[in-house]
Amino acid sequence: MLPLILFIMLVLANGAPVIACKLAPGLWPQPVDGGRLWRDQRPLFGNSKTWRGMVSGTLSCALFSVLVGLGVWFGFWFGLLALGGDLLSSFIKRRLGMAASSRALGLDQIPEALIPMVFAVVWLKLPLWLALLVVVMFVAANIGFSPVLYRLGIRRHPH
């Protein structure tokens, strides 16, 4: 049951920002990087990484974590680390000259799943193989369902 709970938390961290953007587009739309540029004169993360997304993703994980008995602090840190992994992916993509929301298979999914799952291994004493299984499940689901969510008008991009 725990792997399913952690998978759902990854989906929440990834999906809550998308839903929050649809429900409250004017709420905290400012980019996390404040529009700052790195020394290569490219954005740190890009305009699609907003405070609304950081807050909604983190709080959704914290709330769900309380509901399933893992505690608010586990959920808070799990969500924050998942979103931190997403920021890391965006940072790397900008350094590679890739535009915001461009597709980078693996890079778009692995850091945001792997970083919080390493945290789960430490905090929950989760076996490493089980954590890696959850990462693989998340990557496969993200790649498989993103085009469907795009066709339904939930996502802005098909990847």
UniProtKB/TrEMBL annotation:
Q: Where is the signal peptide?
A: none
For this UniProt record, give its keywords in alphabetical order, as a comma-separated list: Membrane, Transmembrane, Transmembrane helix
Does the record carry Phosphoprotein as a key word? Answer: no
Q: Does the keyword Mitochondrion apply?
A: no
Q: Where are the transmembrane segments?
A: 62-83, 129-150
A Pfam family hit? CarS-like
What is the name listed in the Swiss-Prot or TrEMBL entry for this protein?
A: Putative integral membrane protein DUF46
Report the source organism.
Answer: Marinobacter mobilis
